[in-house]
Write a structure and sequence with these properties.
single chain, 95 residues, alpha+beta, two-stranded antiparallel sheet, two-stranded parallel ribbon, 36% helix
């Protein structure tokens, strides 16, 4: 597991990751292209979001910045990626 700062995250949030190239690709897909908000998908205050196959949690981080009072449930079966997900969730917890 490495610790890097994903490019373009305005507040410079650190990102625990397994592979920098993969993290950069997923970051671009989620934050820049907003590919997961296509086809009428919206995130509103108070929503419950299920991130199944969460990898290191970048989508969970993304949605946590779109709305308030969300309940985000993130699941990742790969133990190494799950360790990064846990570290990232702890670092990004807005509380």
């Amino acid at each position: 597991m490495g610790l890097a700062v994903a490019p373009g995250i305005a507040d410079g949030s650190p990102v625990a990751h397994l592979n920098k190239s993969e993290t950069d690709y997923i970051y671009n897909e989620i934050f820049v292209l907003q590919a997961y908000l296509r086809h009428g998908i919206t995130i509103n205050d108070g929503d419950c979001v299920v991130d199944a196959g969460a990898n290191i949690g970048l989508f969970s981080m993304f949605v946590s910045r779109l709305a308030r009072h969300l309940r985000i449930n993130s699941f990742e079966p790969n133990p190494a990626a799950f360790a990064c997900l846990q570290a990232n969730a702890a670092a990004w917890d807005p509380v």
